[in-house]
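Illustration 12: Gypsy retrotransposon integrase-like protein 1.
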Amino acid sequence: MARTEGRETARQQEQVDQERRFKALQHQFGLLQIEVQARTSPNLHLPDVDRESRERPDVDHLDSDGNSEAAVHQQSFNQAGNNIGPPLSQIPRLEKLSDTDEVEHFLVTFERIAVACRWTKTDWVWHLIPLLTGKARAAYVHMDVNESIDYDKVKDAILKKYDVNAETYRQKFRSLSVDPSESPIELYNRLKELFGKWIQPKRKRVEEVSEILILEQYLRMLSPELQVWIRERDPRTAAEAASLADVFVAARGKSKPWAWKPVNDRRSLDMTHFQQRKSEGSGKPYMRNPTSAKLNFAPKRPPICYLCGQEGHTKPNCPKISAQLTQLCFVPRREGTKSPSSLKTTNVEINGEKLTALIDTGSDQTLVRRKFISPSLISTVKKLPICCVHGDERLLPTANVYVKIEEQIYLVEVGVADNLSFPVILGRDIPVLLELLYPARQCNVVVTRAKANQSEGIEHTLGTLPFFNAEIETGVSKRRKSRREKRQEKVKYAAHTEREDLACDLPVNFPMPTNIVQMQQEDASLTECFARAAEVREKPIDDNTARYGITKGILYREIRDQKQLVVPQCVREMVLHLSHSIPWAGHLGKNKTTARIKKWFFWPGLKVDVARFCKSCPVCQKVSLRRPSKAPLQPLPVIDTPFERLGMDVVGPVERSRSGNRFMLVITDYSTRYPEVFPLKSVKAKPVATSLVQLFSRVGFPAEILTDQGTNFMSTLLKQVYQLLGIK
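Figure caption equivalent — predicted structure in token form:
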């Protein structure tokens, strides 16, 4: 019964609140109508609102505390200071919020105008709503209906929409700079306003303000990654931030520094300087002033001259210093001539003519003068766009020519130009451009007696081959080397291979996991292994059976004298790849691969995973000797009735005939091998169906038609024809 009475009381209170809000809106609407009439009709005298309110008791409503609206107005007037303010008919015209206005300045201006006009706090939101535009209006529209009549909540929603919060005020407070046109009092007021919006000291205690300042300084001393991670959790105090930082460092290990070190930190440099430098005539080290090690982050001032007092230069460079007479001794020498910058050039051969070519690393394409290329080789269809250093763009014809560079012939697509500074300009499309620009230095290789005997033995072995000394006719693109050059190349190769015998030519580059403890704990397949490790601690097991143990937080499997790391599921694929697929592993079978892995690693289901990995290895599938057996031949059915089974396909496109046909529909009988050809202008379904009807009218309907399942043969039209005629 009491619960029912409580619900009835709450319902009645809600009805009273709704009635009060409706009357407030009605009253505000009446005021707006009066204001509009006053603006449109200057001579119109406003009625006495207070008198109308007294005459209309339904307008003079009560607030939630039982006070009349007139009393609320009077209270707001007293809070505003004095009763100075414009009358109701002289309400200032407020400008709407534009995209160029700052929302904070706009709201501050509005609040000060509202106080000056002696508006009640409950009426502020009605004056603010018509002034909102863009993002601010969107923030108001998306608010709850009951909250949209509260000015403070509307203001918070607008600032939140513009991303204005305590962090924004903190950054502005820390990065505030002095405006040249402002006074010291204005700077103080700006700092005070930003500090108040950031800290909000009137709403907080002294301990809470201290926690905010300590939290800010604490975050500044952390690494950027850790700062972002902690700010995402939004800690309220520095103690919460410290706990979060401890969790972050524990989860990621101490391999990465968690504290922020500035670039200009020279503490290590000062310590080295302190240890090395010693004062003259004494064995004591030179002690630097400890205050000099502090970093000076103050902005650098322009230098001031101590002679004239002007900024921008120092005393030695002052223009007021008079020139002093000095004596100068010099040795007469010849006048040096400036040598022009040397251009990298080389000799090339095009169409049997030797030309000088410029090596241009800034050109993407090789260019040749037109007179050195046969006109029959020049292609005017394909154009080559080039852009000069001056920005001029041109389209040049192209040609495919053979260019001989250092006894090597290259087929190059070049651009043909009329005016060039050199006959040929070699671009980056030449594969040996860098070798021409930086030629290799020749060096004499020392040949010992052992190397000489080794090379003679190699030559004697090769001399037994037939046609060893015969002259082999070679093309122009490759020059025949002498025996001396061949011996030198063999000696160089032998010396090079001896130096690289111990080198690893196949480096293994793979990411090494650093958080193996976390990976093992997060793997659900290792839950049973951790449980068995706990049982081992309580009950000892003999050495012949496998047991699990945890060493430094890492789970191991121990059997006899082997200690195997239990691999989590996320890195098992990498272990399988290293033990089977890389060239060092040799693509061994599943048994040898399993034995190789068990020497250092283990996980539940190891043999099954190794067998699956070896079976799915592409290299093993290609070179495996166990190939699947070939499918046996299937006997073809004997067709004893002519035109019972037909084969159909399309040939073309071919050259167009006079009647416009470009395709041929070929139909063959599987019984008599009789072919039938129908000319077609297109391979669509309708011409094919027409040809089939012509054939069926002469030879009858077949039982089956075999096709390659083309789109025209599998169309809806032909399917309907087959279904209508009973053809498979």
